[in-house]
Design a protein that fits this description.
single chain; 225 residues; alpha/beta; Carbamate kinase; 8 helices; globular
Amino acid sequence: MGKEPYGIDSDVLEQIAEEIEEIHQMEIQLALVIGGGNIFRGVSGASRGMDRSTADYMGMLATVMNALALQQALEKHGIATRVQSAIDMKEVAEPYIRRRAIRHLEKGRIVIFAAGTGLPFFTTDTTAALRAVEIGAEVLMKATRVDGVYATDPEKDRLAVKYDRISFTEVLQKDLKVMDATAISLARDQNMQIVVFNLTKRGNIMNVILGKPVGTVVEGFGHVE
């Protein structure tokens, strides 16, 4: 969405594509789970009186639109990309098949997972945790518009305290809104480390890949302030 109030900002697509190209050239396997809040958000739709299941399905379709847009941006950079959708729409995307996704990654392709889990009441946070576990990812990178996990909302509280490291249990106990509880619980159960970082700052994707101290690390042990 970028600075626009709605839709897809081509400049944002280009920035993400350029950063992913740098990572791709390092022969690092990278899969993406993409949201749809810039077009339609299921929870907000439900809050306005729409049936939650219908709203969530509409949100899933929005993620497919974003996935196709990002695929196009990546392919302009010469990067082989496959979109896999949890909702069957074979004219525009492959169905999600775990083994096929892993094979694409092994062949050096970027895989974009679209349409969430294919089921209502599950967010793309949960999808990201689920797909990361399924494909055996080393780390789950949560790209957002804030630069980590805070004790309070940094967009509302200028004095909000940022965590460099924090445990899954603390995130759940303190009800921190970094990801939904289902995603955090799944990552905790599977010991899937999460790095939360600011996507809007150029170079941050690479910095996370290189293990530089960017954002917040969420893991199975206690945190260091």
